[in-house]
Description:
five-stranded antiparallel beta sheet; Thiol Ester Dehydrase, Chain A; single chain
Amino acid sequence: MSVGAFFDEITVGAELPELAAGPLEPADFVRYAAASGDDNPLHRDPQVARAAGEPGVIAHGMLLMGLLGRVATALAGPGGPRELFVRFRDKTRPGDALRCGGLVTAAYEREGAAVVEAELWVRDQHGATKATGSLTAVLPRREA
């Protein structure tokens, strides 16, 4: 996945390069908990997860949002994303292999800025949608 694109190269309807993650393991959730400061035991302790009615631990929703953030910055570079909205659709569990991607839905000028909008998604190896989202980003123009 390359970092950054130019507005002049964007086509509405184009698919964004995919990002793969996993298969995820419980240790990934423990590491994410430590890195994020979100130490909810539902994400790292199978007994707590079962007591909450889950068959086992589940991933942090923000882990998926972080993956979509990587898709956003691959398109727009680190300073390009302006808005990123994510909706969690299904729980992510150990063993899930995720694919993240998106589709360019609009490209236009606004107040002198080259703006791109995209729909984003996270799916597992079975095609189940784990999260969806939308991105608004400002991209540079290729110098003539």
